[in-house]
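Supplementary Note 3. Input sequence used for the single-chain structure prediction.
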Amino acid sequence: NSANIICKNCLGGIEINNAFFCPKCKSRLTETQNRCHPETKFVLGAATFYENNAVREMIRGLKYRSLKTAAKPLALVLNGYLQKLAKNSALPEIIIPIPLYRGRERKRGFNQTLLVAESLNKLQNRKIENQVLVRTKNTGAQAEAKDFSEREQNIRGCFKIQNPEKIAKKD
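The predicted structure, written as discrete structure tokens, is reproduced below.
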């Protein structure tokens, strides 16, 4: 029950973004803009802002205090974001949870992104491909990185695609 994690008023007060942002300059794209740097091959998405205390505490609770019930309200936030994006963009056909390093997942007992993906799947009914993206090396915790650049450097080269046929020609 998400009421144990966040009240309805606080959940409703979370600002949900309505567009993607550019991976090169980090600018928020307009609702009708799909690229600001044509040479980029992808866009980034963020459903809301980590600076929001309720969002930050739900994520921390899920990751560090094993509050698995936080997955549902986080999925509701992602669902709201996807609904806003659907007005002007094609939505992805599949959900690919970010894998944890094996030792970290064993220690935590679960992968928080898979829990959120499963909760989101109940709202969006998209296929979850949990065996496509593989973590190939352990990295320092992203939460310890000072900024976006340091987080980006931290994960560089730590993922590999396996079973590419499962995502070939998919949005």
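The first strand starts at residue 94 and ends at 95. The beta strands are 94-95, 127-128, 133-135, 159-161.
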